[in-house]
Amino acid sequence: MQELTLQFKDESKNYQAGDFYFLSFRNVKGISKEPHPFSVSSAPLNKPHEVSFMIHRLGDFTQKIANIPIGTEVKLEGPFGMFNDEVKADKSPVILYGLGSGVAPLISLALQYAGNKQLHLIWPGPQVNNPHYQ
Ligand SMILES: Cc1cc2nc3c(=O)[nH]c(=O)nc-3n(C[C@H](O)[C@H](O)[C@H](O)COP(=O)(O)OP(=O)(O)OC[C@H]3O[C@@H](n4cnc5c(N)ncnc54)[C@H](O)[C@@H]3O)c2cc1C
Q: What DSSP state is assigned to residue 75?
């Protein structure tokens, strides 16, 4: 798993907790220009002008991300998603359950609503003991 954090060029851009974007690198040689979808793992409450992703190194695209120099321009299409509206509107306790990198949008929601809602995040898997996510 790797974490990628991007800064918005335009500070008026924003997203909602649990959203996803299609991400592509248009000016980088050696990596496909095709957009790939990734969910945000950060919360706009804590990071209004930045967005983070938790990306599993699986194939051609995701294994090359770590080699891309810091400062490279990234194209984001989106944001898309409806998790935030559902969680925001729900008055009952919320249980979020995710496996592997599927936990990314749930971490985003947990960060956004911790303290305001009764919320349980269940994430089984090897990354659970990674101090970065504790
Ligand atoms: C709405 C949405 C949100 C997503 N959010 C995230 C996210 O936050 N973090 C993240 O890491 N991924 C996320 N994904 C999946 C991610 O888009 C793909 O894993 C990525 O595009 C794979 O690209 P690649 O070229 O590296 O791998 P590919 O070359 O396309 O795939 C390599 C191998 O991995 C397998 N594979 C592909 N995707 C997955 C998967 N998700 N789980 C298990 N095996 C898979 C393929 O079958 C293939 O065998 C999301 C997908 C969608 C549709």
A: E
84: exposed, middle or buried (Cβ count in 10 Å: 0-12, 13-18, 19+):
buried
Tokens standing for residue 56: 């599993």
Residues 98, 101, 102, 104, CA torsion sign = positive
pLDDT tens digits for range 23-62:
999 989 999 999 999 999 999 998 889 999 999 999 999 9
Q: What is 2-128's CATH superfamily? A: Translation factors (2.40.30.10)
Q: In whole angstroms, what is the distance from residue 51 CA to residue 58 CA?
A: 21
Whether the Cβ atoms of residue 105 and residue 41 lie closer than 8 Å to each other: yes
3-state secondary structure of 124: coil
d(CA 65, CA 57): 9
Q: Ligand 1, from 56, 65, 103, 133: best to mutate by most atoms within 8 Å of Cβ?
A: 56
Of 58, 109, 127, best ligand 1 pocket probe by most atoms within 8 Å of the beta carbon: 58
What one-letter code names the amino acid at 110? Answer: A
